[in-house]
Amino acid sequence: MSRIEEMLKHPQVLKVTDNVNEELIERRTYKPPICNAFSDSYSILEPADEFEFDIDPEAMHKLPNIIRNKVQRVKGVDCPDESVKAQYSKKRNIGIVFSGGPSPGGHNVIAGLYDAAKKANPQSKVYGFLMGPDGIMENEAVELTDDVVNAYRNVGGFTMIKTGRAKIDNDKKMALSRETAKELKLDALVVVGGDDSNTNAAFLAQEMFHDGVQVIGVPKTIDGDIQVRDRNGNVLCAMSFGFHTAARAFAGSISNLCTDGSSDVKYWHICKVMGRVASHLALEVALQTHATMTFIGEDLADYTDVRRLKEGTTDYTAFGMTLRHLSRVICDGIVRRAAVGKNYGVLVIPEGVLEFINEIQIFIIKLNTIIAEYNKSHDTTFHADFSKLKDKLDYLRKLAERSEEDRTFTVWNRRDDDLFNAIPGFFQEGLLMERDSHGNFPFSQVETEKVILGLVQDYLKTLRERGEYKVGIHRDYYKKTLKKGGLDPDFYGPILFKNYGDEYLKVKPAIISVRTLTQALVKGGAMPESDKIPAPIEKIYKKSVPSFNTQLHFYGYDGRGSDPTRFDCTYTYNLGLTVFSLIANGASGLMAAIRNLETDFDKWEPVGIPIAPLMHLEERGGKLSLVIEKSIVDVNSTAFQVVKALREKWLAAFPGDDNYRHPGSIRLCEQGEEDRPITLTLNALGRE
Ligand code: FBP
């Protein structure tokens, strides 16, 4: 036996190389607290009539059997009627599926549902559909057992049954799903997904209504864009699960960059954070880390260029920030920090920021329409027929030509084509990328940060040439350096700096090279033209010349796969218990939710929210579809207003320390991690 083979058998080596470590054992055995409603033997539903919705006529028409559902409160009872007991405890077959991107806490939804179902009747079966909705259509399912469920308690990812992005969106797929439900004798189907998947859940609930299969949705997505209020603004679901964990994971890494950046003081870290459209994650990251600059897409869209608003005229270009303008705002922050010696920092950009930039949004909508139209009218698809960028651009050029001959064809004209051809190739490719099955634009695949960075670099170059981008020199350092070289700082100071006397000294704008420095010294009477620049002066000058060094980062898939925070563990386990209560009480077409997430745990209230009344008509892939509306960041919310009010402080474009915050790492049992998203706390305070 070789030495290494022997080593591999050593108990210590076996222990440290085992997949199961202490952390995993701690997670698997942790028991999240349960809401009061679940501490009794049974739970019942009580309609909460005070919550009302504006119903879309199309939803009324398409979802007749579930549109009149009410919000239901889950209440614990110890001794209900015998008929209630019998209904609650009957043997059931329940199927559960993950749909869309992973979101930390999903396994606990399964664990909560499994525990409640088995407690109510040990004969009940819970099936996990594999690989997302495809698993339903193809009847690929596994019966979940104690061993399987226990291995994943409080553990991140959707590894147990995997996930997928398929959509059950036509008669054939519906028929296949009904067939599976029949084969497995399902009483209920649980769809754990985002806005599109819960939309799908509503259609499945309608479709399976007469088959007697109940369908329940669960609000999942790290993007945090499933937030439900009733027509009067009462909050029913403040946040989808997984958001807190992803934000904390991103914040942990970004906060480390803040520390690194303010230590070696040479990089700007450009961090793109996930969130396909809404900027909730970026907002929470800003609150968690106090990163130097964080942009919120919704805020950029809300921008109004008042100079363009002349009385009596409407200039639509005055509304919303352009990419160019955004790059100017970023440069302004960079230049102001450099002036106080901080030529470094951390910039956070939401993944979906382009969606809020007027000119880009127009491209996305136009290209979505073009691609959808093409796919509708051809047997093949746009992306199959035009695999190379050049072919796609040729096709667009032809459309532009067509618009000149046919005035009714307006979707792509010569101006669109010219503008599109002026943007970098990699960005063109990004904008033309294949849409997902829901018709969504794949923002995570586009190198947004590179597009913005390109513009920032160009403009910083201009500012450098204009002498406006300089690194400020601390006056003590300046004085020490000159004195050490035998020069009088007070003599040279007014010649070199535009603000001699301030704490950070800024080299005059006209001095942008060794040549212009020589000229300034000669003009100031400090030396004849033939002399060499004194070494201490040259040293100070060189220190004032900025170089813009960047490191690009993308925070998305890593945080999505993180182990859940205590908040998400508790939230999701209770969501699972809620799902079972809704099923056991005969509900269908409801989404499980927990109210009062923003308060202390003892006030958390499990509810069922009717999905159909949340639907409205929206343009998707070139046609109007009935979908649940995404919640984007409300720029009037307290959370956003706090970030806005503290922006200058966090930019720290003044002498002294930066204002970074260290959220720490995600821990399960110990205290120390704040117990809910800061966004929720602030917004709740704002409503008080
Ligand atoms: P869900 O809405 O399905 O939860 O997914 C959200 C998300 O993580 C976005 O933040 C991101 O843009 C997208 O998924 C990435 O998609 P993919 O996993 O297909 O790359």
Q: Which keywords apply here?
A:
19 strands; 688 residues; alpha/beta; Rossmann fold; binds 1,6-di-O-phosphono-beta-D-fructofuranose
Approximate strand percentage: 5-15%
CATH architecture of the largest domain: 3-Layer(aba) Sandwich
Radius of gyration: 30 Å
CATH domain fold name of the largest domain = Rossmann fold
Tally of helical segments:
28
Oligomer: single chain
Helix fraction by DSSP (H/I, runs of at least 4): 40-55%
Distance between the termini: 71 Å
Shape: globular
Word description of this protein:
The protein is of the alpha/beta class. It has 4 domains: 1-30, no CATH class; 34-242 and 564-628, Rossmann fold; 244-355 and 446-464 and 550-558 and 638-687, 3-Layer(aba) Sandwich (Rossmann fold), CATH 3.40.50.460; 472-545, no CATH class. Helix content is 44%, strand content 13%. It has 28 helices and 19 strands. A 9-stranded mixed beta sheet has the order 1-2-17-16-7-6-3-4-5, sandwiched between helices. Strands 11-12-10-15 form a 4-stranded parallel beta sheet, with helices on both faces. The protein has a two-stranded antiparallel ribbon with strand order 8-9. Helix 6 (106-120) links the parallel strand 3 and strand 4 (125-129). Helix 21 (475-484) packs antiparallel against helix 24 and helix 27 (638-651) packs across helix 28. 1,6-di-O-phosphono-beta-D-fructofuranose (FBP) binds at residues 100-101, 103, 194, 221-223, 274-276, 351, 443-444, 560.
